Amino acid sequence: MTNVSNPGVGNQPVHPVNLAVEGDDRLAIEWSDGVRHVLSWAKLRSNCPCAACRVEREKPPPLFPVLKLEEAQPPRPTAIEPVGRYAYQFTWNDGHSSGIYTFEVLRLLGEQAAATL
Ligand SMILES: [Zn+2]
Fold first, then answer.
1. In this structure, is residue 5 part of a structural domain?
2. How far does the centroid of ligand 1 lie from the alpha carbon of residue 50, in Å?
3. In this model, does residue 43 exceed pLDDT 90?
4. Which partner for 87 in 34, 74, 102, 114 could form a disulfide, CB atoms 3.0-4.6 Å apart?
5. How far is the CA of 53 from the centre of ligand 1 (A)?
6. Which residues partner with 25 through β-bridges?
7. How far is the CA of 23 from the centre of ligand 1 (A)?
8. CA of 42: how far to CAs of 76, 107, 109, in Å?
């Protein structure tokens, strides 16, 4: 996979050209530069970029193990809607929907997931 920019395309940032559900628990994203990423719902949910989830992630871990309701049932989206030309809004089965996943965030998460394969 080369990273050479195509002068004919100009400065248009990479964007998803296709989203597909893969298996039970994953999202496959095909990007305009030909890269394909597969992300689990769990990874997407646990990296929700909204302010409330960011604060939650920065808290120190609890002293004793806690099983949160949303962890007892595997996360999966009930809706994925485009936001403008730059992001997707995921609505999750735990009712949470304030996370706006910009293409940059999705790309970064995809690259992290690809690196751990
Ligand atoms: Zn959130």
1. no
2. 4
3. yes
4. 102
5. 4
6. none
7. 24
8. 8, 16, 12
What is the SS3 assignment for 2? coil
89 is in which domain, residue-wise?
16-59+70-115
Ligand 1 geometric centre to CA of 92 (Å): 10
Residue 48 has pLDDT above 70, yes or no: yes
Number of domains in the chain: 1
For residue 76, being part of any structural domain is answered with yes
Q: Is the pTM here over 0.70, yes or no?
A: yes
Is 11 inside a domain boundary? Answer: no
Task: For residue 94, give Cα distances in angstroms to 29, 70, 77.
Answer: 23, 6, 9
Query: How many Å lie between the centroid of ligand 1 and the Cα of residue 67?
Result: 18
Neighbours of 52 (CB within 10 A): 11
Distance 102 CA to ligand 1 centre (A): 13
98 C-alpha to ligand 1 centroid (Å) = 6
13/86: higher pLDDT: 86
On the question of pLDDT at 66 being above 60, the answer is yes
Tell me whether residue 1 is in a domain.
Answer: no
- Mean pLDDT for all residues in the chain: 88
Tell me the pLDDT tens digit for each residue of 20-35.
999 989 999 999 999 9
